[in-house]
Design brief:
With 469 residues, the chain is of the alpha/beta class. It has three domains: 216 residues, 3-Layer(bba) Sandwich (FAD/NAD(P)-binding domain), CATH 3.50.50; 112 residues, FAD/NAD(P)-binding domain (3-Layer(bba) Sandwich), CATH 3.50.50.60; 113 residues, 2-Layer Sandwich (Enolase-like, domain 1). It has 14 helices and 22 strands. Strands 1, 2, 3, 4, 5, 6 and 17 form a seven-stranded mixed beta sheet that branches. A five-stranded parallel beta sheet has the order 8-15-9-10-11. The protein has a five-stranded antiparallel beta sheet with strand order 18-19-22-21-20, with helices on both faces. Bound molecules: flavin-adenine dinucleotide and nicotinamide-adenine-dinucleotide (NAD).
Length: 469
């Protein structure tokens, strides 16, 4: 293995491994460092992939338990085998992470297992696992792709058994009777849904007065209503002030956000899901003079270069939406710029998806953002209850909302609650990227009967001419 590189990538998550592959495709001699024992980062190991595997399994379980009889399918003796469910999830993770290792090899990238530290200009030292010698890699450029970690909540210490982060919540040995989720964000609602479907009583405690803050307000409000209907309980505008652990469970103390009497709540398992923060521990940023902002994120310019020439950063560690596809796209652009090409990302049309059931998907501006910016818009809406495919599927909760500019009809935003919302939004994202209009979507032929017809009808409704409502 040669130590002289064009690019050393620190971190093997979606940003790091994709950036390394693109750089290698463009002929850059590349190495990738990863400190955990597998490539794939948070997303593949303890994030997107295991959570979606469990969401799928738990959805099947709930469907059989609650929905099959309406289809005339009687199932008796339904039993949960949690060990098998968790084992399947782990196999999905293991297969995919092995796949990444294969891709790294295929692209002739040097994979160095160990913790990377920037030792000086053009130098990265790697401390491998026990028993091996530290090595120093020399490189023209460094791409920091070290991702993020769980934000701790003072007074509620995570032990990954009784008080868990998302990582522990992906591996509970048994279904808790009572589960409290702190934070009604994406992780709280996704993993709260998994354990509720499997039989836990789930209460979500949220500091704000809305779930999924930042989403279009109509989406947040309706999603909370739907989740309540499914049996999830909410305690809003509440702050958790401490946790006491005993063998029998955890007692949380909490109080109303705006003042009032404190109260306690008991749980077998508490999930802390109040956000994630950038991970730059022991990376040597101080030594080399790379600045971080007040929240620890690494600021970069339009080429993803930090304030130090030759040191670039991409993915969760630079802030913005903490999403795997955003991280990947940044890494691709950064690698292409390093290889002498140009590129940029349209941050306005990055889709965000919450994989509850129904799913939530959003891209572009919310109504609140458009109002605040003083942009005049049309809003077209169509409920899944009026979509024939959703009715065939008995899956009618939710709606599609398309926001288009009043002057030229250009699509500015799309917000969906509904079955396969995460897939449905991609059509709108594509139209947004080509600066298309609601009329464009409305004029495109959509297969029948199909869920995408709800997108078409919402687009028609932006001009007041939806057909099926
Ligand atoms: P990471 O994936 O965090 O990868 C960084 C890697 O760098 C890590 O493996 C870390 O070990 C390594 N590293 C750090 N420091 C060093 C060092 N000094 N030397 C060597 N290695 C180092 N996003 C979605 O888009 N869709 C989803 O469905 C989704 N679900 C999620 C579910 C959960 C439970 C969680 C926690 C996150 C989820 N996310 C999802 C977010 C997604 O995981 C992140 O946005 C994404 O992983 C960011 O990629 P990254 O490469 O920037 O960082
Ligand atoms: P989040 O930012 O989505 O939600 C955190 C929630 O916790 C917010 O509603 C916030 O108001 C609340 N909160 C903060 N402090 C609190 C406190 N002290 N008490 C009660 N509530 C409090 O964060 P997350 O759910 O932890 O997810 C972290 C990141 O992971 C997100 O940025 C998300 O993009 C990413 N992620 C994405 C997906 C997906 O794309 N499907 C899935 C999981 C995670």
């Amino acid at each position: 293995m040669s130590d002289k590189y064009d690019l050393v990538v620190i971190g093997g998550g979606p940003a790091g491994y994709v950036g390394a592959i693109r750089a290698a495709q463009l002929g850059l001699k590349t190495a990738i460092l990863e400190t955990r024992d597998k490539l794939g980062g948070t997303c593949l190991n303890v994030g997107c992939i295991p959570s979606k595997a469990l969401l799928q399994s738990s959805h099947h379980y709930e469907m059989v338990d609650k929905e099959f009889e309406h289809h005339g399918i009687d199932v008796s003796g339904l039993k949960l085998n949690l060990e098998t469910m968790l084992g399947r999830k782990q196999k999905v993770v293991d297969d995919l992470t092995k796949g990444i290792e294969f891709l790294i090899k295929k692209n002739k990238i040097d994979y160095v297992a160990g913790f990377g530290e920037i030792a000086g200009p053009g130098k990265v030292s790697v401390s491998p696992s026990k028993g091996k010698k530290t090595q120093v890699l020399e490189t023209e450029n460094i791409m920091i792709a070290t991702g993020s970690q769980v934000t701790p909540l003072p007074g509620v210490e995570i032990d990954e058994k009784q008080i868990v982060s998302s990582t522990g919540a992906l591996d509970l040995a048994k279904v808790p009777k009572e589960m409290v989720v702190i934070g009604a964000g994406v992780i709280g609602l996704e993993l709260g849904s998994v354990w509720r479907r499997l039989g836990a009583n789930v209460t979500v405690v949220e500091f704000l007065d809305v779930v999924l803050p930042g989403m279009d307000a109509e989406i947040s409000k309706n999603m909370q209503r739907i989740l309540k209907k499914q049996g999830m309980a909410f305690k809003m505008e509440t702050k958790v002030t401490g946790a006491k652990k005993a063998k029998a469970g955890v007692t949380l103390t909490m109080e109303p956000r705006d003042g009032g009497n404190a109260e306690t709540m008991k749980a077998d398992v508490v999930l802390v899901a109040i956000g994630r923060r950038p991970f730059t521990d022991k990376l040597g940023l101080d030594r080399i003079g790379v600045t971080v902002d007040e929240r620890g994120f690494i600021p970069v310019d339009e080429d993803y270069q930090t304030n130090v020439p030759g040191i670039f950063a991409v993915g969760d560690v630079i802030g913005g939406a903490m999403l795997a596809h955003k991280a990947e796209d940044e890494a691709v652009v950064c690698a292409e710029i390093l290889a002498g090409q140009t590129g940029q990302i349209d941050y306005d049309s990055i889709p965000g998806i919450v994989y509850t059931h129904p799913e939530v998907a959003a891209a572009g501006k919310t109504e609140e953002q458009l109002k605040e910016a003083g942009i005049e818009y049309n809003s077209g809406k169509f409920p899944f209850s009026a979509n024939s495919r959703a009715r065939c599927n008995a899956d009618t909760d939710g709606f599609v909302k398309i926001l288009s500019a009043k002057d030229d009809d250009r699509v500015l935003g799309c917000h969906i609650i509904g079955p396969q919302a995460g897939d449905l939004i991609q059509e709108v994202v594509n139209v947004m990227e080509f600066e298309g209009s609601a009329e464009d979507i409305a004029r495109i032929c959509h297969g029948h009967p199909g869920l995408p017809e709800a997108v078409k009808e919402a687009a028609l409704d932006a001009d007041g001419r939806a057909v099926h409502i």
